[in-house]
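Duplicate of #3305? Posting structure anyway:
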């Protein structure tokens, strides 16, 4: 018996829930995904903050095709001089404060988290790691260790020891950072908590406490980086500079990549005692780096980042409704808050039927995730908001 793709997906591909969406797309262009029948869906989540340039960007696609014709994988990362890696690292560091001048490319944001934790332990000689409650830094063993929620991690213990969790945006909590602390890992805009923005004064106090204790400050900008907040990196809003920066998601312009970035002096400590302190086979894959560089140049050659603040205001203006209690977030990371997960899930499902894809958050299931491609136009924002409001009214009127 011949099985179709949906049946093969369910039978042969590992599942992460018992209720996948089972949407089957055949192509994507701009802010739209198209299913087998040709129906268009507005991608209002960018594949979870990945496709910031939209889908099918020509500059990125051309860079991929050109690099494929030159070479693909050559050797474990860090052994050969490969132009795509070198050019991407150089371009990234020109956009960052001078202390963040050395890039280690990996395969994902979670692996960037893992690498940064190793770097912090190696540099400081300490073991304690401090993270914040309801933060999300990935699902690998090390990254999962930074998750405060037992529901997600209890089945996978033992995890990394010596982890302490603090309340986010609570300056008094920072007294827990001591000379035992190797690093503090913080999301500048907390992703899975429903886009909670870090208070600039809190980040300044955090920076000062890390300075006084010798702990490294690690900023996770895996979701918030690459222009999504209205600046290239969200930490620029506060002026607080980390010791280590984590990137991923949109960095690859649709291709899989992550990076942790620190000073050359710190990063070189991974090269000794032990040598090969962190290695990765496919990190910095030349085709992926070529795509990432093209995506970065494309982003910088348009006004999309400068337009983010106005687009945020438009979303906030058009998403006014008695059922929407408030909208948290910054830039094109927005989270309208509803009364319950049940209402939010009905809204998400109804919007999907009406040609719009939104989502919820791991630690804020009553909030609607809005993180569209940065290229979204004002007209497309209006269309998306109409769909959300109309479906919200439809649900509420049929109660």
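Output from current build:
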């Amino acid at each position: 018996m011949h099985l179709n793709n949906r049946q093969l997906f369910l039978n042969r591909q590992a599942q992460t829930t018992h209720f996948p969406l089972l949407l089957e797309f055949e192509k994507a262009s701009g802010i739209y995904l198209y299913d087998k029948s040709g129906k268009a869906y507005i991608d209002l989540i960018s594949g979870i903050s990945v496709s910031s340039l939209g889908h099918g960007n020509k500059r990125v696609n051309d860079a991929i095709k050109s690099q494929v014709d030159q070479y693909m994988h050559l050797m474990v990362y860090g052994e050969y001089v490969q132009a795509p890696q070198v050019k991407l690292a150089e371009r990234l560091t020109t956009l960052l404060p001078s202390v963040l001048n050395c890039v280690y490319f990996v395969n994902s944001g979670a692996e960037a988290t893992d690498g940064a934790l190793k770097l912090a332990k190696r540099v400081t000689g300490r073991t304690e790691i401090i993270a914040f409650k309801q933060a999300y830094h990935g699902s690998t063993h090390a990254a999962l260790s930074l998750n405060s929620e037992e529901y997600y991690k209890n089945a996978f213990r033992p995890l990394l020891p010596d982890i302490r969790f603090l309340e986010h945006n609570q300056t008094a909590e920072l007294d827990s950072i001591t000379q035992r602390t190797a690093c503090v890992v913080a999301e500048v805009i907390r992703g899975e908590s429903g886009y909670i923005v870090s208070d600039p004064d809190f980040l300044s106090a955090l920076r000062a406490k890390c300075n006084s204790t010798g702990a490294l400050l690690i900023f996770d900008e895996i979701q918030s980086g690459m222009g999504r907040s209205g600046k290239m990196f969200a930490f620029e809003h506060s002026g607080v500079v980390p010791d280590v920066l984590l990137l991923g998601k949109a960095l690859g312009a649709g291709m899989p990549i992550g990076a942790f970035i620190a000073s050359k002096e710190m990063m070189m400590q991974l090269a000794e005692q032990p040598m090969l302190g962190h290695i990765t086979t496919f990190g910095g894959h030349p085709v992926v780096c070529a795509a990432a560089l093209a995506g970065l140049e494309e982003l910088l050659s348009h006004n999309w980042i400068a337009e983010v603040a106005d687009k945020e205001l438009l979303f906030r203006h058009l998403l006014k409704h008695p059922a929407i209690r408030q909208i948290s977030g910054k830039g094109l990371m927005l989270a309208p808050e509803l009364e319950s997960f049940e209402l939010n899930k009905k809204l998400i499902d109804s919007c999907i039927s009406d040609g719009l894809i939104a989502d919820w958050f791991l630690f804020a299931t009553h909030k609607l995730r809005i993180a569209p491609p940065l290229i979204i136009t004002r007209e497309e924002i209006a269309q998306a908001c109409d769909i959300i409001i109309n479906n919200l009214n439809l649900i509420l009127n049929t109660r």
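Confirmed duplicate; merging threads. The chain has two domains: 32-56+305-397, 58-300. The mean pLDDT is 96.
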